[in-house]
Design a protein that fits this description.
This protein is α+β, with helices and mostly antiparallel strands and 624 residues long. The chain has 3 domains: 10-202, 2-Layer Sandwich (Heat Shock Protein 90); 206-328, Ribosomal Protein S5, domain 2 (2-Layer Sandwich), CATH 3.30.230.10; 380-624, MutL, C-terminal domain, regulatory subdomain (Ribosomal Protein S8, Chain: A, domain 1, 2-Layer Sandwich). Helices cover 29% and strands 21% of the residues. The strands form 5 sheets. The protein has an 8-stranded mixed β-sheet with strand order 5-4-3-6-2-1-7-8. A hairpin with a 3-residue loop joins β16 and β17. It starts with 9 loop residues before the first helix and ends with a helix. GO terms for molecular function: ATP binding; ATP hydrolysis activity; ATP-dependent DNA damage sensor activity; mismatched DNA binding. Residues 209-327 form the DNA mismatch repair protein S5 domain. Residues 442-583 form the MutL C-terminal dimerisation domain. Residues 383-437 are annotated as: Disordered.
Length: 624
């Protein structure tokens, strides 16, 4: 049998390495920016074309490279940071493996102009697909100037898997922000298609955070500064009242290197327990200064994961540091006995006349008498009264074309057998559905379920999911007709976002306008809500927008699928009534009628059952 094992060519090996290190244009920006920081740069300029597909240019004023170093830098595992294996446990630089430039050169056209301070002429190198095409002297300033063109030109499969330009740009902005937060002594500029997106001057940490997140966060930053023999924790955390519904401003840095760490994430969230809502996320910018011998940064190709020698101890120190900051700056609720006007204790002297305290009451009040003739004006108390309009104002669901396959049941739903004695899990199939008679009587249970008799038994409707289905099909109707109903707000609300969120909001602004949102960008990072969908009466529109952005960040919205239908699902979930709403008989009748005019009344937009029926046979069994 002939030998079949052979060494891979360098170009193929570099492409394999590029698959681990260079995942998208943002990876190139991250690696080259970190190299600029390691080279001692005080100014870094990043120029992007078409979200990095066409061009990525990184210009720095660092130490630069000699002719020999410039050529060697593109060899695989060539690095100035590591001399022997023991050096892996004392790393304080950003890059160290020596894979980045070789990986980039394997999948792109690369041009480098670089010069050291003691040289009169610099070096120009042009590489494509790991092959050096040109190397010659050139006149250039001290530092390095990398031009990365046509990323993944020779790996078309990787290029096809890139997301939209807006999505890739958001990833680039995220990487730049992470590096900028950890290096406030360095000025950063980011330009995309000749439009400046980030312009940060040299500053201190607080000013750098304000420059990235926005001026509105300045008054809500609480300093953290704890020193111990193991680790020093410094930085800032946000006040509990500024916690948002979207997770995005949580940053951990170890020796100025950004990291993700779910275990330490829980330490911070534990310190905020009972101070914020369960679905809220505080912001933090926390830096760990620790002996490199006590951590291992060489456990992930992108160097975003770090292992501590004693994670439990770090957890306790971090948790205590955050709690101390919250307590020291009165972020934790406490009883303030010095507040004027809170407690009024009258002062008496010996000459004061003591009077019997007077108690006022209504002698005609009868706790056992209830006035049922008084109705609640739901237009002032409910956030979904648009559901109960006259029939003339209702959308024409009869002629609404279905956007879903009626014969197709969502894969996540398993229809149980009709013989299942656990009737609460019984979901009627479309052929078993029947509309309640117009004269049906409705009862509400626990502020969640609507119960009504039908021919086959007893029907139970989840009112929240029913409302969600109705709103979802209303939004689909807006998509189909490209007509939306917008109600102008009396007092326009201004929302402030960071650059990443602004880029995302600009991307989906056109889709939001179809649903009825009237958003106006008044300044860089500031959006004003002038109008909201008519279905959003008394619904927090800013909360809905934050949830939409969070859905994009967490991957709930898949850009490869129909974006508008996914937005309709999220908006319906946020605008529908909450559990516990008390409905009148007329409202239950209207809700049920609208539900059965939907195309798929038996499932919510996410595939959860809306209706279940306890059949007559089951009722008979229970009374035998």
């Amino acid at each position: 049998m002939s030998d079949i094992i052979q060494l891979l060519p360098d170009a193929v090996a570099n492409q394999i390495a590029a698959g681990e290190v260079i995942q998208r244009p943002a990876s190139v920006v991250k690696e080259l920016t970190e190299n600029a920081i390691d080279a001692g740069a005080t100014e870094v300029k990043i120029i992007i074309k078409d979200a990095g597909r066409t061009l990525i240019q990184i210009i720095d004023n660092g130490s630069g490279m000699s002719e020999t170093d410039a050529r060697m830098a593109f060899e695989r595992h060539a690095t100035s940071k590591i001399k022997e294996a023991n050096d892996l446990f004392s790393i304080r630089t950003m890059g160290f493996r020596g894979e980045a430039l070789a990986s980039i050169a394997a999948v792109a056209h690369v041009e480098l102009n670089t010069k050291t301070a003691d040289q009169e002429l610099g070096t120009r190198i042009v590489i494509a697909g790991s092959k050096v095409e040109t190397q010659e002297p050139v006149s250039c300033p001290t530092g390095s100037n990398f031009l990365i063109k046509n990323l993944f030109y020779n790996v078309p499969a990787r290029r096809r898997f890139l997301k939209t330009n807006a999505t890739e740009l958001r990833h680039i902005i995220t990487e730049v922000q992470r590096v900028a937060l950890a290096n406030e002594q360095v000025a950063f500029t980011l330009i995309h298609n000749d439009q400046p997106l980030i312009n940060l001057q040299q500053s201190n940490l607080r000013q750098r955070i304000i420059g990235i997140i926005g001026k509105q966060c300045n008054a809500h930053l609480l300093p953290v500064n704890t020193e111990s023999s193991i680790v020093n924790v410094r930085g800032f955390i946000g006040k509990p009242q500024t916690a948002r519904r979207t997770a995005g401003d949580q940053y951990f840095f170890v020796n100025n290197r950004y990291m993700r760490h779910p275990y330490l994430y829980k330490a911070v969230m534990d310190a905020y327990e009972n101070l914020i809502a369960k679905d809220a996320y505080p912001s933090w910018f926390l830096f760990f200064d620790i002996n490199p011998d006590l951590i291992d940064v060489n456990i992930h190709p992108t160097k975003t994961e770090i292992k501590f020698e004693d994670e439990k101890l770090i957890w306790k120190i971090l948790n205590a540091a955050v709690r101390e900051s919250l307590g020291k700056h009165n972020a934790v609720p406490s009883i303030d006995f010095d507040t004027e006007g809170q407690i009024n204790i009258p002062a008496f002297t010996r000459q004061s006349e003591v009077k019997m305290p007077e108690v006022k009451f209504n002698p005609d009040y009868n706790p056992f008498k209830t006035d049922y003739s008084t109705s609640i004006n739901r237009s002032k108390t409910s956030g979904w009264e648009s559901l109960y309009r006259d029939s003339d104002d209702e959308p024409d669901f009869e002629n609404l074309t279905s956007f879903e396959d009626e014969d197709e049941t969502p894969e996540s739903i398993v229809l149980p057998s009709r013989k299942n004695p656990d009737y609460t899990d019984e979901v009627p199939t479309p052929d078993q559905m029947e509309n309640p008679p117009s004269s049906a009587t409705y009862f509400q249970m626990k502020g969640r379920f609507i119960i009504t008799p039908v021919k086959s038994g007893l029907m139970i409707i989840d009112q929240r999911r029913a409302h969600e289905r109705i709103l979802y099909e209303q939004f689909l109707h807006s998509i189909k007709t490209n007509k939306s109903t917008t109600q102008q707000v009396l007092f326009a609300e201004t929302l402030v976002f960071n650059e990443e969120e602004c880029t995302l909001l600009r991307e989906i602004k056109a889709e939001l306008s179809i649903f009825g949102f009237d958003l106006e960008e008044i300044n860089n990072g500031e959006f004003r809500i002038n109008g909201i969908p008519s279905e959003f009466d008394h619904v927090n529109a800013s909360r809905v927008i934050e949830n939409l952005l969070e859905a994009y960040k967490t991957g709930e919205v898949d850009p490869a699928k129909e974006i508008r239908e996914q937005l309709a699902t999220i908006m319906a979930r946020n605008a529908c009534m909450k559990n516990g709403e008390t409905l009148s008989a007329e409202e239950m009748t209207s809700l049920t009628g609208k539900l059965f005019r939907c195309n798929m009344p038996h499932f919510s937009p996410t595939g959860k059952p809306v209706i279940t029926i306890i059949d007559n046979e089951e009722l008979d069994k229970r009374f035998r």
